[in-house]
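Hey, I'm writing a tutorial for new members on how sequence and structure tokens pair up, and I'd like a real worked example in the thread rather than a made-up one. If someone can provide the structure for the chain below, I'll link this post from the tutorial.
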Amino acid sequence: MPNPELAVAARKSPNSLPFDLPDRSAEYAAIVARVQEALGDVQDRQFVGVAVLLHGRCFLETAELPKGMNKGTPTLCHDNARRVALRRPEEYAYAEGFARPRALGSDSPRLCHSWLVDTEGRVVDRTWDDGEEYDGVVVPYESLREVAEFARRKRASLGFVTDWEGRRLLERMGTTVEELLRRA
């Protein structure tokens, strides 16, 4: 049953959704601390994945595709998630980071990926049927809209948190991932 308080919080700011980091929280916090220490006062944190380490969260719960929502195009996870998040911001937020399809096995590295987050904080993945270990950032709606419009004009289709080409797109826009994530 949907939690109305979470739904209201998600509409105001998807990044304010509560989340739980049961088993991996200490490891995750240690990685973030090491990255921050290594970067020191570096202002330009344009390394792929650093935004996820510094601003991300683990998404532990997944949800089935809701009735009426179709699977997206294989290999176009960023577009699959972005389209729905832009059309239905009251119900879904766009998240980008790293995840792993179960079919690859638990020893395989996680892949750059994008998905939706519903008002309960659960992953809704239009691209993979068997995703797991989702770690990423929820991108504020206005930031997503701005990047999507710029990318459309440039005929680009890619992620911008975990993708090098996406980072170059942000540079051409005169912004950074960190600036976009701060907008709530």
